[in-house]
Amino acid sequence: MATDYDAPRKTEDDSESIEALKERVPDKLSGSVDVEDADNPSGFELPGADLSDLELDVVVLPAQEDEFTCANCFLVKHRSQLDHESADGPICSECAA
Question: In this record, what's one Pfam family (predicted)?
Fold first, then answer.
């Protein structure tokens, strides 16, 4: 059976009126403006801004038994990524390539 794609598609769900659809849409001309951005509550910072008064709380975990620190890139990697041991220390497979 051929389908006529140019024919209008009407179902029982399409019976809502234009007025009902307009009620669902928020009024864009209303005076309420969201001034505070939830993702950036302190506003925008310019590059090079003084952040000396900013205090960061970071939990640093010691290297686990199945991890090593690459002597070339200084990243903590899993033992499965160890390529070889050099005179400087362990080297990961990415740095050895």
Answer: DUF4193
Summarize pLDDT for 19-36 with one digit per residue, the tens. 777 777 766 555 555 555
- For the chain, which ranges sit under pLDDT 70? 10-16, 26-46
CA 34 to CA 64: how far, in whole Å? 45
- Residue 49, pLDDT score: 76
Q: Are the CB atoms for 76 and 67 separated by under 8 Å? A: yes
Nearest Cα residue to 16 out of 27, 8, 24, 6: 24
**How many angstroms separate the Cα of 80 from the Cα of each of 42, 46, 77, 93?**
42, 41, 8, 9
User: Alpha helix locations (H) across 1-97?
Assistant: 18-24, 93-96
What's the whole-model pTM score? 0.42
Are β-strands 82-85 and 76-78 bridged in parallel, bridged antiparallel, or unpaired? unpaired
